[in-house]
Task: structure prediction
Amino acid sequence: MAEQGFCKPQVRGSNPCAGTILTGLALSALVTVVYLGRFLVLRFGSFEGNDTMLIYANSKNRPFHYGQFPLETLPRDETVISREAARPPLSRPTKKPVEGLLGQSANRYLRIFSRIAEGEPARARAPVPDDLQRRTADIKGLAYFLDAAQVGICRIPAHAWLQGAEKSTHDYAIVFLVEDGRVPEEDNLAHEWVTSAVRAATNMRVAEIAAVTAGHIRQMGWSTRPHISGE
Result:
């Protein structure tokens, strides 16, 4: 007779599943204790006069619009901006064909996001703060909420445009970076059809974030024009 299920009775009156059940209960109890322990530390850790650093990271009170990478801790070199702005324009990169069904599907949605990214701004402007730093925090916070890996906002240098590209009349640029997704292991059945679609899926996510952010800005009464990688 073929074995059925996970457990196989061997001795009358015995339950070979009991060990598995007890192990599962023990693990559940362990998880519960750990969770309650974390809860108790979070609730009562301040009695010791510290900030419970075993639970809270240094980013506990870090502003959300700073993003996941602590770039504010790195030394600053203001001359980098002028050096980058003085570089000659780059040529337009060669567009590579998208391979595989998954990549083609991602590219299809990229085109959909590109179409809805365009539009007219609202006739009346929203009562947003005059402080540009406050506006910057709002826009970057939205992008990080949409899972962008990094966001930068800056005044557009004259040489920022690619060679032969139509220059926009806007003064500021919002740049989104999205991290490539993890490639499955080589022995994973999904490895072959996911590997060729990684960059296409990333470009699609960038298009999605750009479309949502651009729409948000237009609803507040300002014009936007997304420039999406891969389109």
About this structure: The longest strand covers residues 150-155. The chain has two domains: 17-48, 64-219.
